Amino acid sequence: MMMMRQSGRRVAGLGSRLFSTSVIKGVHESSRIAKPSLLARQVVGANGGIVDTFVRARPMVEMFRVRQYSSTVTLQGETEKEKNKEEEEEKKVQNNVNTTADSEKEKGNIVSYWGVPPSKVANKDGTDWKWTCFRPWETYQADLSIDLNKHHVPITFLDKLAYWTVKSLRWPTDLFFQRRYGCRAMMLETVAAVPGMVGGMLLHCKSLRRFEHSGGWIKALLEEAENERMHLMTFMEVANPRWYERALVFTVQGVFFNAYFLGYMISPKFAHRVVGYLEEEAIHSYTEFLKELDKGNIENVPAPAIAIDYWQLPAGSNLRDVVMVVRADEAHHRDVNHFASDIHYQGRELRESPAPVGYH
């Protein structure tokens, strides 16, 4: 009995410490702070009694925070590594670009304004493509099977006016150039490249004003202008124009540009018909050019490199081959402009009929 009372007193004495609100509050308070706290634990002693002991434990909240912080640090570390890796790669690329740009500057080449050298394009044989005015995918092979004898018979007053206007321009041209067909072709192309640009520009502005498509005619006319300009770039390699011929180009182009601009504003069908007849005269001029080459009056020199690449001519082509493909181009321009004029004669607009895009 005596021992039971003493045990009861011990338990009663321990109850005030183990189960009081002060102890629970202390444990609760310890879980809030970030420092290790003392927690009470009951341990059975050697003699069978209960002994109070205290252990230093880390609160669960702190442990969770530590885990969360460690995972965040790990993610941030990986992100920093990836970012540093990307920065290193960018620096390498930039260093390569700067090195290339510096080498290009040392060679005297012009580097584009953002510091990146132009992309390198190669031929089929792996050699560098040296033309920046056109690319390999813009080259083509002319259709030599096109009918060269087609002629639009003038019927209406505007047709006859266009026909005789072109015929009247041929007389001073024959008188000035006579049989110098190389210089004649050069002069012809400086004029022939104007109508496509003027027509494409006016159709472009019209499309912007009316918020409507052009049916591809803007692109078709600009392709025509570019093709005629490539004719000029080719014949510049063959003919060496004199100073007065260059001065004549300024005069003729200035007059023709403004006249054609006004003519297209007033009557597009008349303007396109004029170009159609101009192309018919161009076919005649290049045919005479070929006759002189065949007779031997004009030396059949090797074809310029720009012509071989632009028309995909075989290696070893000569001037006669160049004149053949240029004449075929003029026949295409003849048909396109007569077709455009016919559309206007029907009271329709060009956009109502698909344009022959890609014909060059």
Question: Can you give a write-up of this model?
Answer:
The chain is mainly alpha-helical and 360 residues long. 64% of the residues lie in helices and 4% in strands. The chain has helices at residues 2-18, 21-32, 60-106, 157-177, 181-210, 217-235, 243-266, 268-295, 305-310, 319-345; strands spanning 37-44, 50-57. The chain has a two-stranded antiparallel sheet. Helix 4 runs parallel beside helix 8 (268-295) and helix 5 (181-210) packs parallel to helix 7 (243-266). The termini are far apart. Residues 1-40 have low confidence and may be disordered.
SSE order and pairing:
Blueprint: H1 2-18, H2 21-32, E1 37-44, E2 50-57, H3 60-106, H4 157-177, H5 181-210, H6 217-235, H7 243-266, H8 268-295, H9 305-310, H10 319-345
CA-atom Rg in angstroms:
44 Å
Could you state the oligomeric state of the chains shown? Answer: single chain
The number of distinct helices, counting runs of at least 4 residues, comes to 10
**Mean pLDDT over all positions:** 78
What distance lies between the first and last C-alpha atoms, to the nearest angstrom? 123 Å
Helix content: 55-70%
**Count of strand segments:** 2
Strand arrangement within the widest β-sheet reads 1-2
Strand content: under 5%
Structural class, from helix and strand content?
mainly alpha
Shape category: globular
- SSE order: HHEEHHHHHHHH
Main pleated-sheet profile:
2 strands, antiparallel
Q: Point out poorly predicted stretches.
A: 1-40
TL;DR of this structure?
By secondary structure, the chain is mostly helical. The chain has 10 helices and 2 strands. The longest helix is centred in the N-terminal third of the chain and has 47 residues, at 60-106.
